[in-house]
Amino acid sequence: MAKVQTTTPQTLSGRQKAAILLITLGPDVSAQVFKHLRDDEIEQLTLEIANVRTVDSEEREAILKEFHEICLAQEYISQGGIAYAKEVLERALGAQRAIEVLNRLTATLQVRPFDFARKADPAQVLNFIQNENSQTIALVLSYLQPEQASAILSALPQEKQADVAKRIALMDSTSPDVINQIEKVLEQKLSSTVTQDYTHAGGIEAIVQILNGVDRGTERTILDSLEIQDPELAEEIKKRMFVFEDIVNLDNRSIQRIIRDVDNTDLQLALKVASEEVREIIFKNMSKRMAETFREEMEYMGPVRLRDVEEAQTRIVATIRRLEETGEIIIARGGGDDIIV
Fold this sequence. Notes:
This protein is mainly α. 69% of the residues lie in helices and 1% in strands.
């Protein structure tokens, strides 16, 4: 008679445990959890849940206990850091068990460095790092939310912006010792967390997200400088970004949707210094009467400040990126995405 192979929490993968946990928590709670996951994570977990046949009560209890311990550890870390969490867990679970829980937490949930900075005001973070060297600033910005990093990058001196952007784009793994040293500089004012694993931050996507959030003048200054310093890098970044002039690469349906969503005054300002190609494709996607009205109002507008034009273009690009994020329009990227109509 063949022996039936049984599974234990120790032999299950993290994804399998997550699937069993969601089944145990029930559909209502699981639905709330799914709201905080990426699409690919939802697909993977859904597939894993579908593959679960039966879960015995002992296995379920062990996974719930493990989840509870990790949640406690995460809470202790946020209260007082790794050392504090280790001390509390040792008292509650014993030394060996505390180490196991913390190792599992840092390996699966990745307690990221510079957690304090993600909760702080960008101006406050800028105050502490603006006089550091470009590599240090790049490292810190790589761990921030894109909108925070954008605000800080915009506030840096122009001569430093491109260098910091380049270092973020070319950044790879960073030693935990280096991270620890930099964190200690900021530790006097703000609390921080530490991970003992090599962590990955930066890269092309990181700097693209950051540049997408800066003002148009800063974006152009950085890209112009990068084109001189490293033309290949500048080209790769530009391929993944969307700037106002890229409207000419959109399909007519997307352009019509953009015209409906953006403020007319912003569009008139943006077109004031736009190329003839951009103007024509915009007017082509308007009704004849609307295009005539736009041309007339742009003439009556008279001279305008370049800063006002750039701000208008930035707001329009922000609308375009929002429409892309919600799937209402499609932007073909430099990587050669295929669009099927």
